[in-house]
Structure formats: structure tokens, C-alpha cells
Design a protein that fits this description.
Structural class: mainly beta
Shape: globular
Distance between the termini: 29 Å
Number of helices: 3
Helix content: under 10%
Strand order of the largest sheet: 8-7-6-5-4-3-2-1-14-13-12-11-10-9
Strand content: over 45%
Oligomer: single chain
Number of strands: 14
Largest sheet: 14 strands, antiparallel
Radius of gyration: 18 Å
């Protein structure tokens, strides 16, 4: 398995998109963020646990925990290698995202990554522009501020850049898609703010399928996120299966990469 064990690919094509589409798009031209569909509400407390299969063995374990407090939703995620994979390339990663569950606007994203000898702590803080959806004026901009520390080298980095007034981060993006009205043949468009760039992402709602996981058998809706410019076609694809009900829980994620395929199966919830 190559460096940067792609357990992180789970979260997302957006991360791959950012690496591939280096220039991003002008924040003022980014697609708008839609609030949750009528009748949808984020869970007050929910834990989703996944096993991660690579080739013929289980390579890792990923867990999401969603909570709400004081009008703010929080997603915490862990990604850890298990078993023999630890001898090849150990991963111990921690992530957290906060967002407004009424508007879907992200407030920030933090991560603490330990991948092999690499140890990084970083925090992205989003400051929205004038107004929030649906009242914000077209073209209104916000800012993102990055503070990053390399724990091995002892170096730090700080950057600031513009983003749309309302943006999605690379962790809450999975649950943003689940908050929308998913219709087969529909394309969802969203602005992803990460790494000092704004990336336009299109999520194609493809088909209904039955999916079996250790947590049970589910009727699902299959979606595939891609970059608007299609620049990820040579780097792999990611497919996500959401339950075909009001909850839209992600029960399976498949990352097809040039070196192999990772499949995330829902173990429990």
C-alpha cells in the first residue's frame, strides 16, 4: 500500500479533487450551498462504524460520530489501520467538522494525522461573508484561515484566503449530500473549501441498488462525486451508497484508485 494510506479517500473525493485541481475555482463563481431538504433533520446523536477492506483483508476501521449542541452540528471521525496493515503503514487519524444544521454552512475543520512517520496538526476556520443562505447576496465572500503544525519537523504554517460566503468542508460534505433530496438522474453541485482553494464538486445521483453490509441489507441510492472539470478521471473514482429513506445514511463507500480498491462497509450504527 502506498504512502498516505487512502483511508482518507473515504472522506472524499473532495480531497483528491483538491490535489488534482490545483487552481480551484473563483469563490465568487462557486455553486450555492442548499439547506437540508424539507423534513430532513440531522441526528442528535449517531455513531457509524465501518470496516475498511483492501484486497482480501480488513485494513482499517473508520468511525463517524454526529452530535448537536447549541444549534451547531459536529462530526468527529477516526481512521485507524488494523492488523497486519500497521506493520506496513500505520495510520492514526482524527478529524472534526462543525457546521450549521439549518443552512449546511461549515464553520471549520480540524485534523490530527499520524501516517507512518508523518505527524500533522491543522485547523481551518471559516468566517462567512455577508448574510447566509438564502438571504446572502450573489458573490458574497467569506474567508478561511489555516493554522498547521508539523509535529516531526517543529515547523508551522499559517495562511488565509477567500471562500464563498457559505462553504462545505471535506468531512461534512458526506452528510451534506445525505441532507438533500436525492433523485435518480439529478446532479448536486457544491463548493468545497479546503487547502486554501474552492473546488466545485458535482455529485451524480446514479441508481437504486440493494447493498449488503455487516450491519444489514439496505435499499440504497448510489451517488458518485466528481470534479466539475473532470480532472480526477486518471486518479480514481469514489462511489457512496446512501439508504433510500429519509435518513440517507452512508452504508458503503468504494474508492477505486490506481493501486487498488478500498471498500468501507457499515459495521454498526
Amino acid at each position: 500500500m502506498p504512502p498516505l494510506l487512502a483511508l482518507l479517500c473515504l472522506f472524499l473525493l473532495p480531497a483528491a479533487v483538491v490535489r488534482a485541481q490545483r487552481e480551484g475555482i473563483p469563490p465568487a463563481t462557486a455553486p450555492p450551498v442548499s439547506p437540508p431538504a424539507p423534513g430532513y433533520s440531522y441526528p442528535q446523536h449517531q455513531t457509524l462504524t465501518y470496516t475498511v477492506d483492501w484486497r482480501v483483508f480488513t485494513a482499517g476501521r473508520v468511525q463517524f460520530q454526529l452530535d448537536q449542541q447549541g444549534g451547531i452540528a459536529r462530526v468527529q471521525a477516526t481512521a485507524d489501520t488494523v492488523g497486519a496493515t500497521n506493520m506496513i503503514y500505520q495510520v492514526i487519524d482524527r478529524f472534526q467538522s462543525t457546521f450549521n444544521p439549518q443552512t449546511n454552512c461549515s464553520g471549520g475543520f480540524t485534523k490530527q494525522t499520524q501516517e507512518g512517520r508523518r505527524r500533522i496538526q491543522s485547523e481551518l476556520v471559516f468566517t462567512p461573508g455577508a448574510g447566509a443562505p438564502p438571504s446572502r447576496p450573489p458573490g458574497a465572500l467569506g474567508t478561511q484561515a489555516l493554522a498547521e503544525r508539523n509535529l516531526v519537523k517543529g515547523t508551522t504554517k499559517q495562511q488565509q484566503g477567500q471562500i464563498p460566503a457559505c462553504s462545505i468542508d471535506s468531512l461534512s460534505g458526506i452528510f451534506y449530500v445525505g441532507s438533500q433530496n436525492l433523485q435518480i438522474g439529478q446532479d448536486l453541485h457544491l463548493p468545497l473549501a479546503d487547502a486554501m482553494r474552492t473546488v466545485g464538486v458535482t455529485v451524480k445521483v446514479e441508481a437504486r441498488e440493494e447493498v449488503k453490509t455487516p450491519a444489514g441489507t439496505f435499499s440504497t441510492i448510489r451517488v458518485q462525486p466528481t470534479a466539475d472539470a473532470g480532472v480526477v478521471k486518471n486518479r480514481g473514482t469514489i462511489t457512496i451508497w446512501y439508504t433510500d429513506d429519509a435518513r440517507h445514511i452512508p452504508v458503503q463507500i468504494r474508492a477505486k484508485l490506481f493501486w487498488g480498491t478500498l471498500i468501507f462497509h457499515l459495521q454498526s450504527m
